[in-house]
Amino acid sequence: MKANKNNKKAAIFLASGFEEVEALTTVDLLRRVGITVDMVSISSKLEIEGGHGIQVKGNRKIKELDFEKYDALILPGGMPGTINLGENKLLMDALVKHNQKEKLVAAICAAPSLLGKLGILNGKKACCYPGFEKELLGANVTNHAVETDGNIITSQGVGTAIDFALAIITTLADEERSSQCAKNIIARFA
Predict the structure, then answer these.
(1) Long-range contacts of 130-134, Cβ-Cβ distance < 8 Å, separation of 24 or more
(2) Which residues are catalytic?
């Protein structure tokens, strides 16, 4: 992992049944450019099983967090991962407060539906996994792979995970580092 030149820090929240590709692609790419990323378990143990049976070990538990220290809060999708994230009041309250401070809130797949339920998407362009559009309450829903609107980034799913991570890098770091990361991983965009 490269040194964190810009001292940006992100937390990605893992619940039982999370979508592994969305979470781990995001963690990997952010760390490649030097953004510190904590993998946060929302349960009482660090080990979390993803939606496809892949065991992942987080490095923090949600109850230990000082949310103020994070520049970005990130939600992977997956089922029942998204439902499980939504049942965590501590996380939902933190997302609202983070948004009120205009800090970055990012969600992919079904997880943007949680932002809709919290009122975070009011008047914002947003996208999600097809079929969850009605859950994006207050949003101007698009069919784009990724939407960045102010401090909110949303994305459609596994196939857009690289685009999602690069959008987060652009916001937390800059376009140059995002473009260099895309080049380094030989990202091909349709």
Answers:
(1) 130/156
(2) 109
